Amino acid sequence: MAQAAQSPARYDSVADFYAAGFPDRYDDSATAALLDLAGPVDGLDVLDLACGHGRITRELARRGGRATGIDIAGRLIEKAEDLQRTEPLGIAYAVSDASAPGDALRDAAFDLVVCCFGLSDIDGLDGAMATVARCLRPGGRFVFSILHPCFPGAGDISGSWPPDGSYFHEGRWTAVGSRSTLRQQVGANHRMLSTYVAALSGHGLNLDVLREATPPAEWETSAPVAARHPVFLAASCSLRQH
Length: 242
What we know:
By secondary structure, the chain is an alpha/beta fold. The chain has a single domain (10-239), classed as Vaccinia Virus protein VP39 (Rossmann fold, 3-Layer(aba) Sandwich), CATH 3.40.50.150. Helices cover 29% and strands 24% of the residues. The chain has helices at 15-21, 29-38, 55-62, 74-86, 125-135, 181-186, 193-202, 219-222; strands at 45-49, 66-71, 92-95, 110-116, 136-147, 153-154, 157-158, 171-173, 188-190, 205-211, 232-239. It has a seven-stranded mixed sheet with strand order 3-2-1-4-5-11-10, with helices on both faces. It has a two-stranded antiparallel sheet with strand order 6-7. The longest helix has 13 residues, at 74-86.
């Protein structure tokens, strides 16, 4: 059963929009890269960090993983649990802050932690990496996908940082591009690539593989300038042995 949220989260107000906009499809290049890096999960204990309405969590469970999902937005977890009643997959969900999960993950241990486009939503990156490292078993892996920190955006598609800003200026901001409909509503944290790498390394997570997934094919005609840039980044990390 989901735990009670401490306070409304950003995604609570857009839960319906988010769930409708991100159905259980997995053929886009960024999701495909994430799942490919995750590899076979049959029989593994898997945590989906910042799981939202459980789109990735469900696919990991369908592939045989013993899946757990946590998210700070209570309304998204409610949607995940509603879907589980329709398609029972044995997933354990909890409302919890990924950067300070408290009792939600007490004594939990996982072979794999995944995070699909959630790191830019999490304000406390260092706390989230501490959670990942604490939850992983020796030899465990962390796989994540994010909007590429180097994507500058183009036209009506917002990038990783404000159009009047700079890659080197980190912070939270709200998108203005008309096609960036989600980020117009909830914003995002921009961080330099080096900041992500330092946070991983600082918590004993070795960066093993980087995958720069290609933009949607339709961008070649609908957004040709944006299509020339790196847009999505997926990575696989392993917990450093002590």
